[in-house]
Amino acid sequence: MKPYQLEGLNWMIRLHDSGVNGILADEMGLGKTLQSISLLAYLREARGIEGPHIIIVPKSTVGNWMKELKRWCPSINAFKFMGSKDERALQRETVVKRNFDALVLSYEVAIIEKAILQKIKWKYLLIDEAHRVKNENSKLSRVVREFKVEHRLLITGTPLQNNLHELWALLNFLLPDIFSDAEDFDSWFNVDEEEGQENVIKKLHTILRPFLLRRLKADVEHSLPPKIETKLYVGLSEMQREWYMHVLHRDATHLNAIGGSDRVRLLNILMQLRKVCNHPYLFEGAEPGPPYQEGPHLWDNCGKMTLLHKLLPKLRAQGSRVLIFCQMTSMMDILEDYMRYFSHDYCRLDGSTKGEDRDNMMEEFNAPGSTKFCFLLSTRAGGLGINLATADIVILFDSDWNPQVDLQAMDRAHRIGQTKIVRVFRFITDGTVEEKIVERAERKLYLDAAIIQQGRLAQQNRKLSKDELMTMVRFGADEIFNARGSMITDDDIDAILARGEERTE
Predict the structure, then answer these.
(1) What confidence category does residue 448 fall into, taking pLDDT thresholds of 50, 70 and 90?
(2) Most-buried pick from 53, 203, 332, 505 (CB within 10 A)?
(3) Which alpha helices (DSSP H) does 113-261 contain, by range?
(4) Number of Cβ within a 10 Å radius of residue 231
């Protein structure tokens, strides 16, 4: 273990000895899983505390937790409580008889099997990606609050995804006697500028200090190569421009209407415009055919695909391996068509991928001498608990509203074990709603910086107003309507990269 990981272990031991729960909130990629397992190993070997412990994790990471438990502490008898209804029925006897030291299961199984799990007296409850309990009214949060546990450890790289109330939910889960009133917490930290935001920051840090540990890679992992993000702006193809105008024309009456229900309609328009930016073939009737054939039209009719078509040969020639993250699984289908057309060796992981297949793909991609060039991942499914540090390029084909989700995606590659500089290329369609989405996401990042790394107290997150949505939808519309033909540049990839680096600064 690295020195800062040993410090993390000692911090968790002190919490245990003080009877205090905690949040291990190290930045993604610093080995929170290893540190958590080391605590259970220490309790077993040094204190004779063998469990039972319950470890609740995202479905996609159950296999990885089992593998890491076996790797780092094989003396812990870990049991996986997962599978279909029939499979769990067979496993239930082991659970009831408590023939295990650590039970590893997904959020979903924890909810379904709550009746059995609530009967057991647990030594430790570990929740990975614990921002899932940030809403005290969520089903998972309500269920685990009923478990009989001596100690709770929350594990998350993103403790503050949206607002201060969510922070309260985490603190309430750890110390319900202290943080018992959400309204009190909200009012305490919702201060005006003149009241002195710096004082509020200090107050919050004082509260957090005993039971929240957060280290950044930049501070502790000096051997980790840097991560460099570049925004690459692309134009719309002629077909995309026509579809963009079609969406705006079709919904023109709603854009000009006034009324409470229009917000939902505006959100739908935003979604349709985002689909246009990704690829016009996401709309029925756009792709030429039948018969539907793979070919140059896959990239000629899409600005982002044209950029990818220019970028991938350069990356392959320099020996890089690539993770491509995308929000839409239907877009991943098109990316798969492209990969097959050029015989690129690739893997694909989305929400429908089975746990065993997911683990096998990771092993295959990370294996020494692997021929896999690209890994296609849906941003939400592929951003949690997956180690792909053998890749050095991350492409964000589109951006999430929540910047923490994109950070999680980047850190699949930028983590312990990475030996190369990680380049992140964020694709943004110029002069469209995508620009505004990225701008808003960047503003949201200030919240985490304000509270955990100090700074100014950021405005609490709120839903986009109808006016804000209208501004986003209308952004760039005039230029798109007035343009003729394709808006895609003919520049080579080096010129595009240079321009992207300038605009990113």
Answers:
(1) low
(2) 53
(3) 114-117, 139-144, 164-174, 182-189, 197-208, 217-220, 238-250, 252-256
(4) 20
Flag whether 469 is in a domain.
no
pLDDT for res 136:
65
Q: Sorting pLDDT into bands at 50, 70 and 90, what band is 454?
A: very low
* Predicted confidence (pLDDT) at residue 196 exceeds the cutoff of 70: no
Provide the pLDDT confidence category of residue 176 given band limits of 50, 70 and 90: confident
Angle between helices 197-208 and 433-452 (to 10 degrees): 70
Residues 169 and 234 in one domain: no
Residue bearing tokens 């746990």:
355
Angle at 292 between CA 288 and CA 297, to 5 degrees: 55
Report the alpha-carbon distance of residue 67 to residue 79 in Å, rounded: 11
25: DSSP letter? -
For residue 274, tell me if it sits in a domain.
no
* One domain, residues 233 and 158: no
Q: Give the residue among 293, 289, 295, 297 at the shortest CA–CA distance from 237.
A: 297
Indicate the DSSP class of residue 226. P
Residues 52, 16 share a domain = yes
Tokens of 160: 């503050």
Residues 63 and 81 in one domain: yes
Among the listed residues 225, 229, 224, the one whose alpha carbon sits nearest the alpha carbon of residue 424? 229
Contacts of 329 (CB under 8 A, 6+ apart): 350, 351, 352, 378
Angstrom distance (rounded) from CA 331 to CA 376: 10
Instruction: List the Cα angle 390/391/395 in 5-degree steps.
Output: 165
Residues with Cβ within 8 Å of residue 500, at least 6 apart in sequence: 230, 231, 232, 233, 425
Are residue 488 and residue 387 in the same domain, yes or no?
yes
Q: Which domain holds residue 37?
A: 3-220
What pLDDT shows up at residue 193?
47
Q: Amino acid identity of 161? A: Q
Q: For residue 118, which of 95, 84, 88 has the smallest C-alpha distance?
A: 95
In a domain, 408, yes or no: yes
Q: Given a cut of 80, is residue 464 above it in pLDDT?
A: no
Rg of the chain, C-alpha, whole Å: 24
Tell me what percent of the residues of the chain surpass a pLDDT of 90. Answer: 54
Do 306 and 488 form a contact (C-beta atoms < 8 A)? Answer: yes
CATH of the domain at 212: 3.40.50.10810
* pLDDT tens string 96-133: 999 999 999 999 999 999 999 999 999 999 999 877 77
Neighbours of 263 (CB within 10 A): 17
Structure tokens at 26: 């190290």
pLDDT above 50 for 194:
no
